[in-house]
Design a protein that fits this description.
Blueprint (H helix, E strand, L loop, with lengths): L2 H7 L11 E8 L6 H9 L17 E6 L3 E7 L9 H16 L2 E7 L6 H10 L6 E6 L9 H10 L7 E3 L8 H11 L17 H16 L9 E9 L4 E9 L2 H8 L4 H18 L3 E9 L7 H6 L7
Parallel strand pairs: 1-3, 1-4, 4-5, 5-6, 8-9
Antiparallel strand pairs: 2-3, 7-8
Helix pairs in contact: 7-9
The structure holds guanosine-5'-diphosphate and magnesium ion.
The site of guanosine-5'-diphosphate has 21 residues, from helix 2.
Length: 314
């Protein structure tokens, strides 16, 4: 290989100064507690899609926060729950893999609602980890002071461990500086793992697909969302516009009907909203063409899962 080639493919990763700290922080918790919102807020850009519908995040996604003295790589995991089908099992397996492959674990709970069995289930999964754990009480903005007993109910769950407890709002940003400092404290000295200006390890194409899926989740509140896989089939870049061709795969033709809507109205709404988001992502003009395909039982097929980009991690 010549130097010429290297110049094009290798991003610049600086040598870390003395005392630089870095490492991987696994964000884990039940679905809908605000893990993806938190990661977006911490890295300062929307890289993980969020929604009021549980089970929005499917793949493991990394968000990178670089400061002068540290680099934290957040690993957003899909919410942990009892699995029902192949996709569900992959999601839980990946979450478990994340627990053991990171340096610090940030267990996020929704402190605006009482703790429950789902929280205990996750704490049990963490019982044997040697990694430091921090308990994050999210959604502090939704709490009024009379709800303090809720914090206590989470504190009681982890009484036998010495985990620090930090309260914050991923939505407003309140308390996140303290969270960030505590996380850095727990990290060991280490190198830059990624170039300082990178905010995610995912290629743009993947995020484009996720932005489309996000609009489907938000606009169709039916059986459809969990059966949807978006595949970006083609991206054509020209100086003035980027053309994106994406397939929306569903499992049944009834779902195809819902996504297309009356005279194509739903598909149009999805396309318009997703196009706006993608334009923000790439900071340029976008033409977005969406196709809807029926792919029966793709969630049960390992082959299809792999094709649609869901990795099973060891
Ligand atoms: P995840 O499933 O844990 O990744 O949760 P998401 O990040 O997708 O968030 C689920 C829902 O909770 C979304 O509607 C978010 O807007 C909302 N949410 C997340 N964090 C906060 C917060 O700090 N305060 C409030 N009020 N809502 C939040
Ligand atoms: Mg999520």
């Amino acid at each position: 290989m010549t130097d010429d080639i290297n110049q094009f493919v290798l991003p610049i990763i600086p040598i870390a100064p003395d005392g630089f700290k870095s490492g991987f922080v696994g964000i884990i918790g039940r679905p809908n507690v605000g893990k993806s919102t938190l990661m977006n807020q911490l890295v300062g850009q929307k890289i993980a899609i969020t929604s009021p519908v549980a089970q929005t995040t499917r793949n493991r996604l990394r968000g990178i926060l670089t400061t002068e003295k540290s680099q934290i790589i957040f690993v957003d995991t899909p919410g942990i729950h009892k699995p029902h089908h192949t996709l569900g099992k992959i999601i839980v397996k990946n979450a478990q893999a994340a627990i053991n492959s990171v340096d610090v674990i940030l267990l996020v709970v929704d402190s605006s609602v009482p703790s429950g069995g789902g929280d205990r289930y996750i704490i049990e999964l963490l019982e044997n980890t040697k990694n430091p754990v921090i308990l994050g009480l999210n959604k502090s903005d939704q709490q009024s002071s009379e709800y303090q007993p809720l914090d206590e109910s989470y504190g009681n769950l982890i009484k036998e461990y010495n985990w620090p407890i930090i309260k914050f709002s991923a939505l407003t940003g309140e308390g996140l500086e303290t969270l960030q400092n505590t996380l850095i404290e727990k990290l060991d000295p280490g190198p830059y793992y990624y170039p300082p200006d990178l905010v995610t390890d995912q290629p743009e194409r993947f995020i484009m697909g996720e932005l489309i899926r996000e609009q489907i989740l938000q606009l169709t509140r039916q059986e459809v969302p969990h059966s949807v896989a978006v595949v970006i089939e083609q991206v054509e870049e020209t100086p003035n516009i980027t053309r994106v061709f994406a397939a929306i795969n569903v499992e049944r033709s009834s779902q195809k009907g819902i996504i297309i809507g009356q005279q194509g109205s739903m598909l149009k709404a999805i396309g318009t909203a997703a196009r706006e988001q993608i334009q923000k992502l790439i900071a340029g003009e976008v033409y977005l063409k969406l196709f809807v395909k029926v792919e029966p039982k793709w969630r049960q097929s390992n082959l299809r899962l792999a094709e649609f980009g869901y990795r099973l991690e060891k």
